């Protein structure tokens, strides 16, 4: 009986130590509660979604070195640089489709299915299709040299275009506003 108990405890310790993954490195035990991140809402591209690029909890988890305090002191441009760099897994200063997909897929990763809820995979499949479509739109609009990657220069240029469009919309709205 003692041998069985020791064996069970040992197997439990080994399995806990082996729980690894991109967001639970070094054997950390995964979070057992619902864990929410900002989720893209069908924007034209990833670079057009400022809320996604400024999701501090996402950056804090993915970077593994940036604290909440450090992130709170960053400019939007610094946060966007870190968002780009933490998802550049092969460190070639370019994001390919899989790296872009992983960046947005993270928003779904921590959702824990409730045992009382319907455990259908259909909503997850629909979300994945939406994210793949978002990545495709991002590559189409932001990969200006059509090499299959979004370089950091292309990323910054896409962000600048988005900022110019937003400023033009705000200017037009204020010009049309009643005096």
From TrEMBL:
Name this polypeptide is given: Multiple coagulation factor deficiency protein 2 homolog
Region named Disordered: 19-46
Segments traversing the membrane: none
Superkingdom assignment: Eukaryota
PROSITE patterns for this protein: EF_HAND_1
InterPro entries associated with the record: EF-hand-dom_pair, EF_Hand_1_Ca_BS, MCFD2-like
Keywords attached to this entry: Calcium, Repeat, Signal
């Amino acid at each position: 009986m003692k041998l069985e108990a020791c064996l069970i405890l040992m197997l439990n310790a080994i399995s806990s130590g082996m729980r690894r993954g991109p967001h639970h490195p070094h054997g950390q035990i995964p979070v057992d509660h619902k864990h929410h991140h900002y989720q893209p809402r069908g924007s034209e591209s990833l670079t057009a979604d400022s809320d996604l690029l400024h999701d501090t909890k996402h950056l804090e988890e993915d970077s593994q070195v940036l604290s909440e305090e450090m992130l709170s002191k960053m400019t939007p441009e610094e946060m966007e640089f870190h968002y780009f760099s933490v998802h550049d897994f092969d460190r070639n200063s370019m994001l390919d489709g899989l790296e872009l997909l992983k960046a947005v897929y993270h928003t779904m990763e921590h959702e824990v299915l409730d045992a009382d809820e319907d455990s259908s995979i259909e909503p997850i499949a629909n979300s994945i299709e939406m994210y793949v479509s978002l990545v495709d739109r991002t590559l189409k609009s932001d990969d200006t040299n059509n090499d299959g990657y979004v370089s950091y220069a292309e990323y910054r240029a896409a962000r600048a275009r988005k900022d110019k469009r937003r400023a033009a919309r705000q200017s037009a709205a204020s010009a049309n506003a009643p005096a």
